[in-house]
Every structure is written in C-alpha cells, then in structure tokens.
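> @MW can you paste both from yesterday?
MW: sure, first one:
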Amino acid sequence: MACAQQWLMLSDPIDAAQCLAAGAVDQVFPAAELEAAAQALVQRLCASAPASLAAMKRLSLEGPALSLQAYLSLEQQLLKACARTADAREGTSAFVAKRAPTFTGR
C-alpha cells in the first residue's frame, strides 16, 4: 500500500523490476513472450472449476471488510455450495483416477 501511494502521489516513472519487487505484479515477461504467457494463464484458468474460482474471488474481495465470524460463515456457505456441484464430483473422481479433471461449470 505504501508503494502504491508513493507511486500515485509522486508520479515518478517505475519500471517492471520495481513493480515485481514491490509485489505490484506477479511476473514480468519480455515483450516477445508476453502473448504466449498470457495465453498459458488463460488456459490454466479456463481448466479450473468456475464456481471455486468465483468463491475464492468473492472471499478475497469481501473478506477484508468482514469480521472473523462473518468471514468464516461466508467461507462455510461457499464451500458447501461448491461441494454440491458436478465439478466437485469430477475433481474428486479425477483425483482418485489420477487424471486431469474436466470441469464444465456445473
């Protein structure tokens, strides 16, 4: 947060190495490799269970504003909802069969 405030208030140029060191970005790629890296990330996310991703996103966005009790309640609610999906059954079956899961978003 301190780095972000400093960058915004001072408007100094910052380079990729500074962003990486401060945790403002996760990875840095040469321009020639950027598109392939982005496509690989997209493919990885697309292979994930959508309900689980949505639950994680909701917890990370709403969580900081919640009390511990409210957070744990929301986490339990979302976990139960995800556990009832066909994707949860597929994930378990794939794990037992030692194969990659195929999630459908159901």
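MW: second:
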Amino acid sequence: MPRLAPARASDPFCPVYDAITVLQGKWTMQIVHALIEGPMGFNELARAIGGCNPSTLAQRLDTLVRLDVLARRVESSTPPRTLYSLTPAGDALRPVVVAIEQWGRQHLRKDRVQAVRRAARTAREARAS
C-alpha cells in the first residue's frame, strides 16, 4: 500500500481533506452515483436521486461543474435540454462509489441504519419546535 504524504503547514492544500470536503457536500455522492449510468437531464437526475430540493440540486450541480467533476451540455432542441455527465475526473470516482457500496452491503444492517435515520429526524424535529 502506498504511503500517504503528510500535510505540511506551509502548504494549505491537503488532498485528503479537500477531497473529503468536496465529496461530503450535500447530494454529491448521490449525483455521482446516478451519473455513473450515463448522462441525465436535470429532472431525470432529480428523480434518480430523489428528495433533493431543486434549488439545492441546481446549486450542487453548478459547484460540481466548476470543480470539473461534471460536464454540462445544453442541447439545442425545443425546448432546450441540459445534460449532465461525469468528466474524466468524475468518472475516476467510480471505484470509490463501488467501494462505498460494497462496504455498505457488507457492514451496514438496514434496520440499524433506519433506526439512526429515525433518531436523527426526531432530533431535527425536536430542535425545530
């Protein structure tokens, strides 16, 4: 296994920290996971990942395009259609997504995950009231 280079105080760029910061962004991994299947339009992508507010999705897609994880292409049809696809950098996340999926299947129990989600939702609702 290759050794990881330690972060240096003189260099504020840390590939591990910065990659995690990008990938933990809301809906990022779900977007990448959906686009592994191929290019999708905005509404198709929204349905594929489910539950994401349209303005949040638009903001996240814009960020991922600026980071060169996704490509945005507008087709000149009537009406115009915008397609999103993975760039080579985004496609390089494929083994990461597959590894996360395999880890989840091997190590997470559905009932425990659902219980944690319910507890988190209950806590959010309690804070909101």
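> thanks! The mean pLDDT is 89.
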